[in-house]
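Standup notes
- DV: blocked on the single-chain target, sequence here:
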Amino acid sequence: MKKQIAIVTLFLISLILLFSCRKTQEYPIEPDIKYKDFILYDTTDLLGNKGLVGQLSFNFVDGDGDIGLKQPGKDPEQADSVNMFFTLWAVVNGEVIKPDLKQALNYRIPYMEPESQDPTLKGIIKVDFLYFSYQYDTISYDFYIVDRAGHESNIESSPFFILPPVE
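- DV (later): unblocked, structure below
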């Protein structure tokens, strides 16, 4: 019986050592993003105006875990900073154009930091676009992110999608 307990104990110790010594996967310090999906759904604002919400989702991985910016009041140097950039593309008369927008399509990803000793951050980011009136009915977005060290990610693109009429 003692021999069996010793064998089981030795086996369990071997398993613990085997799985506790796994090396973590290393990723580049530049963020990497991958388009996931774009979902459209109906919405109504506080005044009763009907519109659409488009939710763009993408996966990200950053090897050194420095994604996101602190809230504007907490870091004056980052008060007007953004770290996600979009380019809108539209189809007009069968031709793809880059519309001249009055305001840039930028977004501020909130501050994140790793919760373990592994510096890698992975996750899904979702960004909502509101459409209460729109000039183009077939659009697409190119987008990329920038981490706190200034490393730019790859550029990803959504497919073209058709915005249904707002009723």
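- Follow-up: Helices lie at 2-20.
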